[in-house]
Each structure stands twice: as C-alpha cells, then as structure tokens.
Automatic annotation (TrEMBL):
This is Sugar porter family MFS transporter. The keyword Ubl conjugation does not apply. Keywords: Cell membrane, Membrane, Transmembrane, Transmembrane helix, Transport. The keyword Transport applies. It is found in: Cell membrane. It comes from Chitinophaga hostae.
C-alpha cells in the first residue's frame, strides 16, 4: 500500500527483516488466504451435486443455471458491502463473519427440502465468498512488503484452487452414499469454515486499519514484526501522514477523471477473468465429461485431475508473478486458454473423444488459467488502486467480477442446450482474444514497483 497517500499502508523493507519476522508475515498471510479456500470450496461443491439436485428439485436448464449461479448474486452483494464492513469492523473481524456465513450456507443447503430454501442458503454463502474475495487480498497486501507482495497475494488464489480440489474430493467421496449424497456434499464445507474461524483468532489486525482507528499502540506492536530495519516511529509517522487528507471519497469522486481510468482497467481485468469461461469448466466439468461418454464416477475422477492441475499451476503463478511480471503472464494466459478452448470446441464439433483428447486440452486450459489470470488478476487488483479509494474501487471491481461470473454460469446450461458445447467453447475463445487485445493495450506492468510508483503509473495527481 502507499505510504504517502490516504489510507495506504506503509511500504516496508522485507529483504533485511529477521527470519522470525518473515515467518510471522508468511503465517498471517497464509491464514488470511484461507478465505480463498472457503471461496473455492463453496463455489465448486455444486459441481458434483448437479445431477442429484436436478433430479430432486426437477430442474430444467434455466432453473439449473439459476441454482448453480445464485451464489454469485450473493457474491456481488458481499463485494458491495465488504469495503464498508472492512473499514468499520476491521479486516480480521470481517473475515470471521465470512467464515460463519460459509458454515451456515453449507449446512443450510444440505438440509434444504425446497428450492427456495436451497437458493437462500446459496445466496448466504455468496455473501461470505464475495466479501472474502475482497478482504483476504486486502489484508495480505496491507501486511506484505513490496518484494513479496505479489507471491503472498497469489497465495490467495492458491487457497481458492485448493478449496476447489477439496470440493472435488468431497464430491467423489460422498457420491456413493445414495439419494442424499448431495446433502453431505454441501454440509461438508462446515469443517473448513470452522478451521478458518479458529485460525483467525490467532492473527492480528493490520497496522493500517489500527492507525486509521487511532489504535497506535497496537499498530506499533505489529509494525515491529514487519517493518524490518525501518524504525517503527518512522513507519507509524508515514502511515499517520497518509491519513491527514483522508477525506471520505464518494462514488461521484471515484468516477471522476482522476480515478476513472484505473477503475475501468480494474473492472475490465476482473470481467475478463470470468468471461473467458473458467467457472463454466469448474462448475460443470462433470457434466462436460459425461457428454464424452463417461459415467458419473469417471467424470468426477477426471474433475479431480482438473482440480489437481489447477493447484500445481497456481504454484507456477506464485513462483513467476514477481519474476516474469503481471502483464506477460496475463497475455500468455489469454493465448493458451484461447487455443485450448478452440481445440475442445473442435473435439465436440467432430465428436472426437478418443485418447483423452478433451481431458488433455481442458487440463491445458485450466493450467494456463491457474498460472496466469487466476492468480495474477487478484494480485493486480490488490495493488493498482490508490488506497484513498481502494476499498470502494476494489469493491466495484470485485462486484463486476461476480456479475460476470454470474452471467457466465447462468448461461452455460442454456448455451450448451441451444447452441451446443462446441459453439459455447468457441464463444469463450473469442473472449480470450478480446482479453488479449485489451490487456496488450491497457494493462501496465507493476512488477517490482512500490505502491507509490504503481499509483504514479495510473494517476498523475491525486485530487
């Protein structure tokens, strides 16, 4: 975060900090990133339940799309409220609230016997997912020093894909439990929710928020562990100075010519992460594999393979994001994802499903996403906004992301029913091409830059 503008946390030197301080920073960042694990688990658990809830609730393709995507409306609402909640109650308390919402959602959905109740609990889980999607990266970015900020924020995406993989395993394990197996699939998310809540009890609030609330003494204790060779008094002074002109920013100001360019970039990058089709693959992978002639068990097993590849690829993003840079990874991802989607589309068009060809190209697609857009978009959004408008701007960008995710997830069953799977894949490939062109022209590299330097890339003068 910026140290010379309102609301921006101090920039600290990490290379020279003692080993114990590095451990502290890594551990608290890891705990905050577990918000992503619940994000991934809560959103992906639906994939294994689709055949069973479709039968139980007698869903057509339109109601199936709504049942799967309804969580994303909650995500959008959660994203809208997260900025206010994080500034009022703190990043840590906000994440605790998210953990409770995750648990309530899973248990409630598993116990539902009416579709409207099922939808209500999915919406409840979405509130937690949407809020965590903003607050977890915010917490990490405010704790992490510049040299490690990219990879530590990328741990959030790692937690998401681990959550997705755990959901796939859970679905596979509960698949053979009979007619109520889908209930156990949903209820199983209460376990990681409780773990997240307990771990949050052991982490501190961020120094930026503590100083914002006038709790200087508590902030100093945390800064001693993360500020390295920079004197704590200097670090505190820089943060306090950054709040001297920290007037509340309105929506109207956010859309002024000062902030609008960076806001638009954030919104577009967030939207492109979703409209390139990733969550159609994540949510509907078992359904797609069944179209190739596989049975339920084999479809779920191949889905687990996709989840595992997603985890491995995200490790690649953590290793590369601070070496290769944000822009190059984003561009590379758009190309590889687009090529993979075209290949899968042709496989379905010509009904060629031999030699695991569909699985191979879907794995390439997921690997490309995990190593690029999946992790890098969250890193990019966490660092491009000036912190005077950061909470509000990040809320709006995250809201755009969830609305795009909702649109893609809602329309996938309808598109495949009306257009066919091949044409649907080609549509997502076109979005990959559009994303490549936009990012080539508009995205600016932020690798290795302090948050002060990043801000100067997008905003010539703070008004």
């Amino acid at each position: 975060m910026r140290a010379d503008h309102p609301g921006l946390p101090v920039t600290v030197a990490y290379a020279n900090t003692p080993a114990a301080d590095k451990t502290f920073i890594s551990l608290v960042s890891f705990v905050a990133a577990l918000g992503g694990l619940l994000f991934g688990f809560d959103t992906a658990i639906i994939s294994g339940t689709i055949p069973y809830i479709s039968s139980y609730f007698q869903l057509n393709e339109y109601m199936l799309g709504w049942s799967v995507s309804s969580i994303l409306i909650g995500c959008a609402l959660g994203a809208m409220l997260a900025g206010i909640m994080a500034d009022r109650y703190g990043r840590r308390i906000s994440l605790m609230i998210c953990a409770v919402l995750f648990a309530v959602s899973g248990i409630g959905a598993g116990l539902s016997d009416q579709l409207y109740l099922f939808i209500i609990f999915r919406l409840t889980g979405g509130l937690g997912v949407g809020a965590a999607a903003m607050v977890s990266p915010m917490y990490i970015a405010e704790i992490a020093p510049p040299k490690w900020r990219g990879r530590l924020v990328a741990f959030y995406q790692m937690a998401i894909v681990i959550g997705i993989l755990l959901a796939y395993f859970s679905n596979y394990l509960f698949d053979g439990l009979g007619v109520n197996n889908w209930r156990w699939m949903f209820a199983s998310q209460a376990a990681p929710s409780l773990l997240f809540l307990l771990l949050l009890l052991a982490v501190p609030e961020t120094p930026r928020w503590l100083i914002m609330k006038g709790r200087k003494g508590e902030a100093e204790k945390i800064l001693k562990k993360i500020s390295g060779n920079i004197p704590v008094e200097k670090a505190v002074g820089e943060i306090e100075e950054s709040f001297q002109h920290a007037d509340k920013v309105s929506i109207k100001q956010l859309f002024s010519k000062t902030y609008l360019p960076v806001l638009v970039i954030g919104i577009m990058v967030a939207i492109f992460q979703q409209v390139t089709g990733i969550n159609s693959i994540i949510y509907y992978a078992p359904v797609i594999f069944k179209e190739t002639g596989l049975d339920s068990s084999s479809s779920l097993m191949q889905t687990i393979i996709i989840g595992a590849v997603n985890v491995v690829a995200t490790f690649g993003a953590i290793l590369l994001v601070d070496i290769i840079g944000r822009k190059k990874l984003l561009l590379t991802g758009c190309v590889l994802m687009g090529v993979s989607l075209v290949a899968v589309g042709f496989c379905f068009h010509y009904k060629y499903f031999d030699n695991y060809i569909v699985l191979i190209f879907m794995l390439l697609y997921v690997a490309a996403f995990g190593c690029t857009l999946g992790a890098v978009v969250w890193v990019y959004l966490s660092e491009i906004f000036p912190n005077r408008v950061r909470s509000l701007a990040l809320s709006i960008a995250t809201l755009a992301l969830w609305l795009a995710d909702f649109a893609v997830t809602l329309t996938f069953p309808v598109m495949t029913k009306q257009m066919g799977t091949a044409s649907t894949m080609f549509v997502y490939a076109i979005f990959c091409a559009a994303a490549f062109l936009y990012m080539l022209l508009k995205v600016k590299e932020t690798k290795g830059k302090s948050l002060e330097e990043i801000e100067s890339l997008f905003i010539a003068e703070i008004k």
